[in-house]
Amino acid sequence: MSSPPTINPASNEIEPLEAVFERIRKGDEGAFEIFYDRMQRPLMAYCLAITGDLDTAKDAFHNTVISIYEARNRFRNVNLMGWVFTIARNASRSMEQRQNRRVEIDETHLHESEPLQSLDADEREIVRKAIMNLADEFRQVIFLKYFGDMSVEDIAEAEDISATLVKVRLFRARKQLAEVLRIQFESHV
Amino acid sequence: MNPLDEKLNQAIQDYRDQTTPAIDSTRRYVLARMRRERLQRWILGGGSVALLSLVLYFVLDRAEPLAQRLPIAEKAVDAGEVNPADRSAADRSAADDREAAANSDAMEVTQTVKTDSMHPARAEAPPPPQAQKRSTSNSALTYAITHDAFVDESIALTRRASDAVTAENLPLAAESYRGLARLCEKRMEWKRAVAAYDSAVSYANRIGDTHLLQDLTREQALASKKVVKRK
Fold first, then answer.
1. What is the dihedral of CA A175, A181, A183, A187, to 10 degrees?
2. Are A162 and A50 in contact (CB under 8 A)?
3. Which of A48, A121, A130, B41 could be joined to A180 by an S-S link, Cβ 3.0–4.6 Å?
């Protein structure tokens, strides 16, 4: 009886993102799939963290991916993660500004819908609101960590800050969240 | 798991579920765009090749007949057609030593012109058969560019002159050598033109055509001056 095939760790090595991106530049669709699978969550998390609104984040994410694809030949072998997240940041802020203008126009609409949202007692909704009420830098690390499944090192690379600062921000964000949620749940009970 | 982490993950999971359709939609959009661009590149690339082939086809279609259409001897020499019967008498002996010498000079002119002044590829190029007219574009294009009928014309003229001599048709021989000389002049092969004129003058002398002799002498003198200038 033959033994099951053993997996060679060498063949299971993850291809560096830069190499994948290089293949995308040559028009490799498979490479795009790999790149997209790895980056979709972090990018969406980042867009969501910046815009703070699901619909705006979806638009920002779409624009980000399109921009990355269109600008693929302009990328000059620097920090790929930093470059990608800069595009995401710009797209998100651009969408956020548009959204703010739209909100100003539809202000009456928003006020009408607020009481309905405040009546929502679902725990998840409370947590989501708590996250959204965090300061920008805390919200970003929380989203990248929990939504994007990114490591501290990857977040540091994407945000262009040190890993230590990422850890500090994560710690403070979690502390704030814990405090907010404690108050929220107590008041609900 | 830490209760806070658990709450965070649960809350985030809702976001994940809600963003999944958007993520999939963006993936499909970009992949479709990549395929479309690849198709465009393929079409444009293929289109360029097709356009180039078309251009080559028309260039060859115009250039090849030009090379072939040139009525070789008739353009340079104002003489009539050689009777095929005369050609069959090619094995007859030459008229006299002077004629033979002039003839050999002229042949030398043609041979030298053929081997020296032309591109090697052109010297070796056989006359294009009609069947090859629209064959492979590369070989046809090379032929069309390099072939200007000079070699063919000079060979035909020399052959016509020698045939005329053999047939003792001295006026035709004189005109043929004159035509050869003019052809060489067009190519600025002055030395060879003078040699051809020399042959023509000798035949004009034998005929006793003074007008032709005067013209040939004048033309030969002009060609001789060019030879001196080039030196």
1. 180
2. no
3. A130
Does B15 contact A at CB distance below 8 Å?
yes
ipTM of the complex: 0.72
- Res. B120 pLDDT band, cuts 50 70 90: very low
Burial of A119 (0-12, 13-18, 19+ CB in 10 A): exposed
Q: Which residues contact A71 (CB under 8 A, 6 or more apart)?
A: A87
Identity of the residue in B8, B10, B19 whose CB atom sits nearest the CB atom of A58: B19
pTM higher than the cut 0.95: no
Average pLDDT on B162-175 reads: 88
Structure confidence at residue A64 (pLDDT)? 92
User: To which residue do tokens 């809702």 refer?
Assistant: B14
Answer yes or no: do A123 and B7 touch at CB < 8 A.
yes
Closest to A126 in 3D by CA, of A177, A52, A66: A177
Give how far Cα B193 sits from Cα of B181, B199, B216, Å.
4, 10, 11
Q: Scanning every residue of chain B, which has its alpha carbon at the shortest distance from the alpha carbon of A180?
A: B4
Contact indicator for A25, A53 with CB cutoff of 8 Å? no
Q: How many angstroms separate the CA of residue A111 from the nearest CA in chain B? A: 24
Cβ separation B4–A69 shorter than 8 A: no
- A59/B123 Cα distance (integer angstroms): 70
Res B77 pLDDT > 80: no
How many other CB atoms are there within 10 angstroms of residue A18's CB atom? 13
Dihedral (C-alpha) B82, B83, B86, B87: value to the nearest 10 degrees? 70
